[in-house]
Amino acid sequence: MPFINTKVNMPLDRQQQREVKERLGRAIALLPGKSEQYLMVGFEPDYPLYFQGDDGERPAAMVEVSVFGSAPAAAYGKLTAAVTNTLSEVLKIDPSRIYVKYSEHQHWGWNGSNF
Description:
By secondary structure, this protein is of the alpha/beta class. The chain has helices at about 15-25, 75-90; strands at about 5-10, 40-45, 60-70, 100-105, 110, 115. Strand 5 and strand 6 form a beta hairpin. It is globular, with a radius of gyration of 14 Å.
């Protein structure tokens, strides 16, 4: 039950969203037991982000990955690399301007009940 929410300080067209979503769908399998089957992806384009004192004119991203359960640190490292590569290649965001945050949750609801 992963959810990946991507906030960027730039506009995104549907093609960019689709390509990022597809690549994140493949990348989520880097976490043991996770797959695109239950992945939800969200985008927040034109999100005001200020980074390193920058007024937001240079592209930047904050990616939040929420998962039910947990994963090993090494798996999170691989996912961070995949997320960073995706945003760098598809959206031309410098890797040094991308943060990735992970949240692990014991309780997760879906389809009217909890896992």
